[in-house]
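Dear V.,

Thank you for sending over the compound details. I've combined the ligand you provided, zinc ion, with the protein sequence from our construct and run the structure prediction for the complex. I'm sharing the raw inputs here so there's no ambiguity about protonation or stereochemistry in the SMILES, which I know was a concern on your side last time.
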Amino acid sequence: MFPTQKKPVKFKLPKAILSTIAFLLLSVSAGCSESNQNKATIPETPQAQEANSTPKPTQEVAKTRVVATFLPMYWFTKAVAGDTANVDILVPPETEVHDYQATPQNVKAIANASVLVKNGLGMEGFLDGTVKSASNAKLTRIDASKGIETVGEISPVEHTASGHDHDHGDKNPHVWLDPVLAKQQVSNIRDGLIAADPANKAIYEANASAYIKQLEDLDKEFQQTLQKTPNCTFITFHDAFPYLAKRYNLKQVAVVEIPEDQLSPKDVQKAVNAVKKYQVKTLFSEPGVDNKLLTSLSKDLNLTLNELDPLERGSTDSQQYFRAMRSNLKTLSNACK
Ligand SMILES: [Zn+2]
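Below is the predicted structure of the protein with zinc ion bound, written out as structure tokens.
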């Protein structure tokens, strides 16, 4: 046994996560819609009129500037805002968010924004210092996880010998992976945008309802599909799926943290032990992770290797949420058979 190193962790999950691999089964998906144009038309002012005392009537109405922290927050915000507000993302969509270090551009983006949307629950470890540096007194902050009942570790977490600390404490931040909680995040974002930009209330409401409807459909698909395989057991390498497991009665039996680089013989042994102990049938890795070690591990153990996506990286299209979740659902339903 290795001494578990428990530092209170902030956000440091980087590699642990990526490297991660999960043995799991689940997924979801949905879709969203963007909408509307809100461009004020600029009347062509005949030059003749220009010199007058008449104040120039119409300049293009400035759109509300919104920054969202990382991918799922960007998807949800963009789905609600459509083209009515300008939405930017702080963490580049191909970058590991748990490990993210803010850039000067991030500070600038926050300094120039009216609204900031975050997941919260410790997910954006880089954010507080960055917001402070931006010193934007007028910034409206939206905490998308407001009011959501959090869970901590729902199963034993085996830390790696290398000391990667992937401990979320009692608040696991991966709430977006449960379509029902995602609905609440979308509602929180909608309400925050309306508060910051009440003139466009009707647009935000309509966009949010369309996306929420897609989330509800997705939830139904998960329920219907996964009820055929009750109590499906899994082990994951990235502690990203407790909300999904809870929602659809999957049994997460353990989280085995594995460093993405330099998997040591001890790490491998831990994974092997956990797989044997819990009689897991499938190993789940993550998209974008080099799976050579896991591939050979799964071969040695006679297990299949699948990918479960924590939706932390990928396309910025708001509909990507639904595609990735449906792909996860397919993976889960196959692996849970
Ligand atoms: Zn994560």
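A first observation: Residues 1-54, 161-168 have pLDDT under 50 and may be disordered.

Warm regards,
I. M.
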